[in-house]
Amino acid sequence: MRRLWLVSAFLVAVPLSAQQPAPSSQGWAGPDIITSATGEARVAPDRAQILIGVQTRAATAAQAGADNARQTKTVIDAIKARGIPAEQIATSEYNIYPEYDHREPAREGAPPRVIGYVANNTVRVEVRRIDQVGQVIDTSLGAGANMVNAIQFFASNVDAARRAALGEAVTRARGDAEALAKAAGGSLGALLELNTQSPPVRPLVAQRMAVNMDAAAVQTPIEPGQQTLTVWVSGRWAFVPGSGSR
Questions:
Q1: Which strand (E) or helix (H) includes residue 234?
Q2: Which of 2, 15, 67, 151 is most buried (most C-beta within 10 Å)?
Q3: Which one of 154, 174, 193 terminates a domain?
């Protein structure tokens, strides 16, 4: 009896008279072929998330926090005035910490001297129109924000693109399986099993942006580009041996 090895599958040839005409995944006892493939589709992001921050310094923690609260409220109010509703604005991070003078060496055993306190408040803004991203950034900076930490672009609906990518992946997997079957002297039989494990679509992340407090009148240019969606499928087919592979 000859044994065939195809794509990590141990294949035992079965006489043609013993083969099932329409094998099922549960009942098929003959040799099979397993292949996997990926498919890709490109989608245009239609939404974005922006991390906008306000940083303040003061002699005391209370003063730094109070100054930050007033400045952050002004920024949030300005963003809302741009048409961004409150449910699309959320606090992402808030902290207050002491700032030390590291230039003067402390006396032995003495802690570093505190020279002030820093307060940071970062809000996450979801923008559902790409053409508003630059406007929101410029409005925030004009209202007192002094940090734009990151921008994430993403597509709100990728179902159609994902299904197109799945179709491409299945076509590739079947094409590889047919090539393997032919090379082994047989043909490809019925599909026995088909699986997919698609990773989640990751947003496109723009790097931390430098803030120019002397902002020009020109709106900040924002280019979201395109997002690549990748899927993976694995298929198992029955192998129909030819006369030379028995």
A1: strand 227-241
A2: 151
A3: 154
pLDDT in the model for residue 12: 32
**For the chain, how many structural domains are there in total?**
2
Residues 164 and 140 both lie in one domain: no
State whether the Cα torsion 87-126-39-35 is positive or negative.
negative
Last residue of a domain, one of 115, 137, 154: 154
Query: What tens digit of pLDDT does each residue of 170-205 get?
Result: 999 999 999 999 999 999 999 999 999 766 555 555
Phi, psi of 45 (to 5 degrees): -60, 140
DSSP H stretches of helix in the chain? 61-81, 133-143, 159-183
- Residue tagged 């044994």 (tokens): 3
pTM: 0.66
Shared-domain flag, residues 89 and 179: no
